[in-house]
Design brief:
486 residues, 0% strand, globular, APC_superfamily, Putrescine:proton symporter (AAT family), cell membrane
Length: 486
């Protein structure tokens, strides 16, 4: 069985020139926390996984720039802003378009840093590696531990959203029943090792793009025939003086960043790309731009169709985009969007839960966590069964304790830790260590760090506190496992 990533390379390039034996060793999740099938959390010092990989066969360089952009869009999904629309709209007083565009600017600086670091570590594509090697092993560990939180949170917010969406379809079934059902489905499929192929993911992304186009067509028709905005009314989604608040805008931006989560997965493709020194960075940047502009268009139409001056009620906030679809396209569009987003969130949640289980297995195998529980595979399925069950339990508990908004903010907390770390790593490498001269070697990573740091500070204080407590727990684990090794 070849890995999903290998199938995607073949599907995009249509050139069967891949060394699958090598490729099977390189199953890297889109977040970039693991690298080359190794555990991304080193307790004792610098990892040698990248060095070991240098001795193994490498993939054929068959991918062009447009392949990378398509790969990035598949990872992020064209429907990315729809699930978080209601939360961002309520937090930012409308202005969802502005939050998406500001988040895009923040991601562009970081995308350049990711692309530049992929030149230095083409076999890794990992924020952990960049920070751990350029700054310190402890810094890399903190980044990796923060990303572990994201792995655990992703299936939680997917279960929360899916349960809320199904409650819209069958309101008599209680929310808790949907939560239990989705956790059982996610966990059951992962225990059986059922995973979608990359070709299926590409076709799903195409289907989502078609659904987006249908929504835009209905939306523009509704706006021009029913709303009929005139003059400055067309600009209200960008700036509405009746609801504008800079604090609320940046708080909303801290959540809207979720739209772009996954773009860093492009940096894991360095070994398969023609001219990687140029194309990885351009692919990462262009993916952010493409997703940003498409997302801005989606939420622009949504805001004109349903102005954000009046907040969505609590029962509707998680599924607000579905109700906008109901308004502009009737029951047909409501059901189409519901089905599409259910598939998207289920796919993301199942993959994220398995990614978390695989990461915990890697940590157990490397003695970063107790090996007897975390570092074992099922003898019949070769799946980290204990970890799948544990992540299923965490998902079940988390789905009852966290709202979609709080879960999204916590997830972005971990992502911003990684983004800021990569910007610092790029600054240290290109400004102080490497003789290579690059354009604005200091300015771009500094701006990326400052913008990400500013948005990170605008996260909800409760989310920041919970995130810091998670890092504190990670440091306790770090010290305990180092003491155990002595």
């Amino acid at each position: 069985m070849r890995s999903d990533k290998c199938e995607l390379i073949y599907f995009l390039s249509r050139k069967p020139r891949i060394d699958f034996q090598s490729c099977q060793q390189r199953k890297v999740p889109s977040s970039g926390l693991l690298f080359q099938g190794e555990c991304g959390l080193d307790i004792g010092g610098q990892s040698t996984a990248v060095d070991r990989h240098a001795k193994t066969p490498h993939l054929q360089r068959s991918l062009k720039l447009w392949h990378l952009i398509l790969y990035g869009i598949i990872i992020i999904q064209p429907t990315a802003p729809m699930s978080i629309y209601g939360v961002v709209s309520n937090v930012a007083g409308g202005h969802v378009v502005s939050t998406v565009l500001i988040a895009m600017i923040a991601m562009l600086f970081t995308a350049v840093s990711y692309g530049r670091m992929a030149r230095v570590y083409p076999s890794a594509g990992s924020a952990y590696t960049y920070v751990g090697r350029e700054l310190s092993p402890l810094g890399g560990y903190i980044v990796g531990w923060s990303m572990l939180m994201d792995y655990l949170l992703n299936p939680i917010i997917c279960v929360v959203w899916c349960s809320a969406a199904c409650r819209e379809l069958l309101p008599r079934v209680p929310y808790g029943a949907w939560v239990v059902a989705f956790v059982l489905v996610f966990t059951g499929l992962n225990l059986r090792g059922v995973q979608t192929s990359a070709r299926v993911n590409a076709l799903l992304a195409l289907g989502m793009s078609i659904v987006v186009a249908i929504f835009l067509a209905y939306g523009f028709q509704y706006i021009t025939t029913v709303i009929r905005p005139a003059g400055t009314a067309w600009m209200v989604p960008f700036y509405d003086p009746s609801t504008f608040s800079a604090r609320r805008l940046f708080h909303g931006t801290s959540i809207a960043v979720l739209t772009y989560i996954g773009f860093d997965g492009i940096s894991t493709m360095s070994e398969e790309v023609e001219n990687p020194r140029r194309n990885v960075m351009l692919g990462t940047v262009f993916t952010c731009v493409a997703i940003g502009l498409l997302s801005a268009l989606e939420v622009y139409v949504a805001q004109l169709s349903w102005p954000g001056r009046v907040p969505f009620p609590a029962w509707m906030v998680d599924t607000a985009f579905l109700h906008i679809g109901l308004r502009v396209g009737g029951r047909f569009l409501f059901l189409l969007l519901n089905a599409t987003l259910l598939v998207a969130n289920m796919g993301s949640g199942i993959a994220a839960q398995f990614g978390a289980a695989r990461l915990l297995y890697g940590m157990g195998r490397e003695d970063a966590l107790p090996r007897r529980f975390f570092g074992v595979l099922s003898p019949t399925t070769a799946i980290p069964r204990n970890n799948v069950l544990l992540t299923g339990l965490v998902t079940l508990i988390g789905a009852f304790l966290l709202t979609f908004e709080r879960g999204a903010e916590l997830l972005n907390f971990g992502a911003f830790i990684a983004f800021m770390g990569v910007n610092v790593a790029a600054l240290v490498h290109y400004k102080f260590r490497s003789p290579e001269k690059v354009f604005l070697a200091a300015a771009i990573p500094i701006l990326g760090f400052l913008v990400c740091g500013f948005i990170w500070l605008n996260l909800n204080h409760q989310a920041q506190l919970l995130g810091l407590l998670w890092i504190g727990l990670g440091l306790i684990v770090y010290r305990a496992m180092r003491a155990r090794r002595r």
